[in-house]
Amino acid sequence: MKKIRFLESIRGISALVVLLFHLKDTTNSILIHNFLILNGKIFVDFFFVLSGFVIAHNYSSKIHTLIDLLKFKFKRFLRLYPLHILTLIIFVFIEWTKYFLSINVGIFPSSEPFSINNINSFIHNLFLTHAFLSVNSFNIPSWSIGVEFYTYLLFSLIILFIKNKNMCLFLFIGISLSSFLYIILGSGTITSMENEDGFIRCCFSFFLGSTIFSLQSFFSIKPKLANYLILFFLCLMFIALFIKNNFIGILTFAMIISISVKEEENYFVKILNFKPLVYLGSISYGIYMFHFLVIWVERQISKYILKVNPDSFIIIITTITFSILLAHISKIYLEDKFTSLGKNIKFTKN
After folding, report:
1. How far is CA 15 from CA 73, 287, 332, in A?
2. Which of 130, 152, 274, 295 is the 20 to 30 Å CA partner of 174?
3. DSSP secondary structure letters along 196-257
4. How far is the C-alpha of 328 from the C-alpha of 322, rounded, in Å?
5. What digits encode the pLDDT tens for the residues 9-45?
6. In degrees to the nearest 10, what's the CA dihedral of 138, 50, 4, 275?
7. What is the DSSP letter of 111?
8. pTM of this prediction?
């Protein structure tokens, strides 16, 4: 399948917004405290939409047998699990360090060691079921990786057992719509749904992404019209984020993706195909998984070693820089190694 390069750029931008969102308690900078960044949680849902679209694009015509399903799951496992385990090990080491310092040095962390990050949450992290616990543990952002992994399973089961494409589309719409109704009737706000409800949150956006992929063959758009439509939906998306209407924000984002993929010669896609942005997207998983660690380390250095409150601009720059650096290293020496193994997996020809 042809790789859609500009979607990588959107991943990279989304990862940076999530990173900046997690700096909201560290700095009062206007670069962080604005409507876009303070609503940064919604960019996790943008990730889910992109994943739903890309997974449907790459695998909706490949899963014909149970062996194909297992191959698909193994490929996704190789993509997600190695970096998840690496960051988990690092956070386990941090927990032991906190325990050692509290016992031997008299430095007491803000949270008691092993109170949340305990053996139970560790085992759940190993099996990617930690998102179903009542609280987040260890590497906090990784909750979304867990729910996405099991959403992949639901997607692959639908593709395996439902051979009719129209029926698959009907199920994608049904799952997304029922998830939407559950959220509305439950809490009314999608960004508050993590932990036990995180899987439902993921299903809404993931299968929305799968839906817009499946609808591609039903419409065509002229190039000039695509530019105007994308500009319209971009404006509508920012208005929705400004007034904190996250459902409209997600829907308009999905429309932008749908139109852009259908007509790739528009200005929006040309801008996003800028090579540095595409590369940022290629390391977006690393940025997402490492940034919470970087922020934590910076806070400890500032508090216990430098004993100063870090400058707003400096903390933003250093967090972005070190997160990108770690993500770059991870891509070369970890992620690419396992991804290359996945590329050798062949599926049954229909």
Report:
1. 24, 6, 18
2. 130
3. GGHHHHHHHHHHHHHHHHHTGGG----HHHHHHHHHHHHHHHHHHHHTT-HHHHHHHHHHHH
4. 10
5. 999 999 999 999 998 888 888 888 888 888 888 999 9
6. -50
7. S
8. 0.90
